Amino acid sequence: MMVTVSEVQTEADFEEVAPKKPWTQVAMDLSRKQPLGVFGLAIVLAMVVAAALANVVSPFNPLQEHFDAMLVPPGTDSYLLGTDEFGRDILSRLIYGSRTALLVGFVCAIVGSTAGLVLGVASAYFGGLFDLILQRVLDVFMAFPLIILALAVVATLGPGIENVMIAIILPFVPQCARVVRSNALAIREIPYVDAARALGFSNARIILRHMVPNVMAPYLIMLTTFLGQAILLEASLSFLGLGVQDPIPAWGLMLTNASEFFEGSPWVAIYPGVAISLSVFGFNLFGDAVRDTLDPKLRSR
Amino acid sequence: MGKYIFKRVLLMIPTLIGAAVLVFLLLRMAPGDICAVRYLGSGLAIDESQIELCREQLGLNKPQIVQFFDFIWGYVIFDLGDSMWTGQPVTHEIAIRFELSLQIAIMATLVATVIAIPLGIISAVRQNTMTDYLVRGFAIAGIAIPSFWLGLMIILGLLIVTQSWLGEPWMPPIEFKSIWEDPIHNMAQLIWPAVATGYRYSAVATRMTRSAMLEVLREDYVRTARAKGMVEKIVINRHALKNALLPVVTILALEFAFLMGGLVVTEQVFNLNGLGNLMVDGVERQDFAMTQNLVMLVVIIYVFINLLTDLAYAWLDPRIRYS
Amino acid sequence: MSKYAGFAFALAAGVGLAVGAGGSAKAETPKKGGVLNFIVAAESPSYDGHKESTFAMVHPTRPFYSLLIRVNPENPSSPTDFQCDLCVGGVPKPTDGGKTYTFKIKKGVKFHDGQTMTSQDLLATYNKIIFPPAGVSSARKAFFKMVDTIEAPDDETLVFKLKFATGAFIPALATPFNYTYSAKDLKEHGYDWHEKNVNGTGAFKFKEAVAGSHVEAVKFDGFHMDGKPYLDGYKALISRKMAIRVQAIRGDRAAIEFRGFPPKQRDDLVKSLGKDITVQESDWNCVLLFTPNHGRPIMQDPRVRQALTLAVDRWGGSQHLSRIAIVKTVGGIAFPNHPLAANKAELVRLKGYGTDLKASREEAKKLLAEAGKAGIKFELLNRGTDQPYKIVGTWLIGQWRQIGAEVTQRVEPSKSFYNSLRKTKDFDVSMDFNCQSVINPIVDVSKYIGSAGNNYGNYAGQDQELEDIYNQLVQEGDEAKQREIMRVMEKRALSDQAHEGITLWWYKITPHRSYVKGWKIAPSHYLNQSLDQVWLDK
Amino acid sequence: MSEAQATAGQDFGAQFRGQVSDEVLITVKGLKMHFPITEGVIIPRKVADVKAVDGVDFYIRKGETLGLVGESGCGKTTTGRCILRLEDPTAGEIIYDGKDICQLNNNELIDVRKKIQVIFQDPYSSLNPRMKIGEIIGEPLRVHGIITDEAKRRERIGYLLGRCGLHPDFADRYPHEMSGGQRQRVGIARALAMEPEFIICDEAVSALDVSIQAQVINLLEELRDEFNLTYLFISHDLSVVRHICHRVAVMYLGHMVELSDCDELFDHAMHPYSQALLNAVPIPDPELEKTRGHQIIKGEIPSPINPPSGCVFHPRCPLAVDSCSQKIPDFREVRKGHWVACTEV
Question: Is C471 a member of any domain?
Fold first, then answer.
């Protein structure tokens, strides 16, 4: 009659977990299932490597002006991609610029989506008046097109990289909070949250330990979407003269400066634009693969 | 349905009030002074009293709260006030630019629709084939390439191509003429920005068409239609497309709303005298009257189009009304 | 004025290096007809010349109006060659010890609406400019501090009585903003009417304007100069982006942009259009400076400020930057080539103007070390305008890097730039500029004294010696002595105290379609814009 | 244990029931839980109430297992959630250890929560999928400082797993690597970790396969005896209830209609609703089943938003008389320990 420990143990033996595949196998499977995603990841990794090793791989100091070689076309002397109006090597500036792009991309995406995550989960967990007010506040922020809100914020705070990042993060927060909240609302109804409450855990613990880890899928999807968007927004704001400022190397800034010289010297505009497009392309491909893997139904623009 | 519409319209009120407060606060917190820009920008020595006089005439020395209620009261009595820069009524300034922005938005929508729907369908029907990958690559590239950079490249291409073909460089016209007045002039100017923004826009719409089609193609009724031996083309046209179109139309509508005021950078590249340009000017000059109202106009368009798409969803899918 | 006459001739030949066909216009007979399209880089808030101060107002509206006197359109590069516009004969000599100027007014001058212009209109105009009623804007009231009274004893006479004799009066009268309005308009429509309405005696009549896009004008048949204007009309197109303005010239959407293009754009245009492009160039009465904020502890030590100016390679910069930015000439505080300006031999004695760059930079490093500020770190505040601010700013940072200074740049749009400069004074070193219309060095150099309204260095009251030198300069009547005092002031402001660091003077480059004739470049983008003498060779 | 034995547990029920003392552990008095329905877009306002629990009284003695039965939606789960303070009751008292649980603030509540635990119905959703089994069981031990030493805690987790019939190595597994029955054992182990006095089993076995059900029920009984636990056993499965419970309470539409000893209720149900409920239970013997007359309750369950007046059961009651629609029947003790809310019995 009585079930013994040993009995159950045998039951458990039946359900051995499948052995972990070697990572090469995982990578192969992934590239077969998500070829575009792997391609995107490769671009992102290349960028990360370029940024990390910028001082090793750059042929020149990105700040060094060469007044004897101003606006020379690609291939002149050792300037592979030519120089800008101060005779600074474009390739070196592009390589160093990937640091700025990655900084803006990752900081904005991570801070924006994490803030959205906390707000969204808290809103779903506490419900009531807090949720109601937060929802209305988010509605207000969502009523602005992304670029308009970012423009207004950076106009208020003033140009510069920190302010641009704030201006980009701000519109991201409500977007992520909205998506996370709807997921968290469903999770709030799942008994393990009740179990945690019955165990007498604090609200903070329940939110952080029990709800947050379970809305990781939408969170990661939003995060990867934001990566590319942040880089694009930074480029747009820079083009309006509100972003990163000389002499710091940054792609958007290079494009801004180029807008004055690009007719006679097209390379000053072409390469930074290609760098921006390629990196956003990579981030988007990677993000799409993440989305497909985590939740094929979750769509976002 | 009536109740649902009422509810959604009612929900717009706090959103718009909140947006008005936010816009006001953001703009007023910004450092700077339109009068300083007006008198000091040229570098000429100007009396400080001139700047004070200018502030007084524009009402900038009134307490902020009074200025806020003046701003809100303007909406109540349908008087948006005058631009602080030109002194012209804000409505007049906006009206001048509205036609251009509207036309670009419409043209870009046409470009996007013509490209996006066929591509999205092909991509979905041939999921995971080379065609699909190419279309998806095209679409993701469209989202990745900044429209303003594409614009620069278009201009560059135009100059190079016309110089080598015609011997004389050709440029699109600088000033806007209405399509009714001079269609050739109009098109020669606006086709380029429409293409530059239309590409990004079509990329967004292609992705949406593809995923909506994929979802619909998995549904039972499509499978049933196929099982009944219907010709594939009819299945797609009659059954799948019709049902996949709703999210596509939504995305088109939202992008349209965005184009009406969000083209702040592309308009710079093409020297378009549109709403986006007006916004950048307003922000740069600290023209509160102009910027406040312009941002509110964009927000209203945005919220209103959002409302329309929500209503369209609710009308087609009764479940939404009760959730 | 006569004391400048000899110089004027020399300058006309020397400064206004008109390249290409522009200079030879005299030989040809003007053709009539055609519409001139030109580009303006910004949009003016209003059409009221008395109120505004931007070239974006001058370019589209100056042809609507006449001035009492103006810079000679045939010789605009001269700082002293003025001619009568609404008066008869030459510019009158002062009487009463230089304190009374009596103008004979031209008869039969018509306003666009048919009114006849008399001295009463000029009286009303100048009363509005010099003695505006409370609440009425007049941007250049301060230019006329010397004026005591204005009278119009009859319809053909206008008399200015001054409080003291000064050479600054005639240049102030020739300021291109002093549009002549009708007394009747001012009386009937009020002082704000001209902000949005046009009724002048100029060569062109207002036709239409679209905000943010263009201003269109047609020929005024009743213009008071016989046979003029040659053009049927003009259209001023507004375009904010430099690239577009260049493209417009290239694609012949417009024939000229009067403010000017950077050198690179000039080269591109010449390369692509060849002889269809004519380039006129001139020194420009604008100078770009960097202003250390004396309110910041790190900038209080004169040795630090001297080090900053010593680091700057002005002679090399003149060569390099003149290929990418609208700056060129190395100069002191006065407009280069003006009789009162320093020559090269005088300049090289100033700190930072030496020809031995290495020695200068060594000295700079030594000064920094002595001041205990080796490897100084600070922020350069700059204005968010590409030409020439941002280019020169970036260049300056590169120069400072050579003496071990680590400098970041904070670029702000005009609105907050001025806020930081004037109100919050939140900057270490700022880009600054001095840009005037009619060349008038004695007035223009007031910028460098701490008490001046447009001085942002925060050293008011800290350098009485400099203030005294300037007061001496203003009161000195003799030109040779003026020049001496000017040198003393220059040395004190730029070298001994290094209150301000002058970078380079601007350089105006106006490439235009070769078919535009009769327009001559002036040393200021405010001057010579009446367009009555311009014609098209098509 | 065979399937037939498990479902026909009544044959064996009594012999497994542990010792019940006379000491009352928990008393519920006049418990009401109304959920407001709000309307209004910008400022919500209450327009109606869902009366999920509308005046329920009972007590549970130490060591006793009280079954709470009724159709879904009758308020039995809500009653359990109120005791756990997962809901804030609208009215009533829940006296535990001489304190009213409803009045406790968050800090005071923690002490009570250590003593009252819960086992949920769905083993798939009651465990956090992102945590390992060891963490799930160990978390309360750590958070409440019951065992602060890491090694000792692991030992305790191993013991709890073993006691609930799982190998201690399961501590390093994730829930998705386990079967439903195994997960439910984890749920039990988690409840036990706090060393509670009182466990609410909310449909604790309903979601399990019948064979596993029996194992888990046996485990619950063993644990009750071993740790001297008290259970509130919420279930809609009458056969399981008969197997494990000392006393049974029947709920209908937020009201308690009958409460008595288990055998008494199964043999002599008095309330017409209880009778109908019992009648609906199939008898495993097909011959017997055929001869049995089914009494089917007419009509639908009324909405708890707008419950019927008087006796809430009257619209469906075969015994209903006119007065039933006006007078709310008292919950009266008809025999010793047998309470019924009906005027007609």
Answer: yes
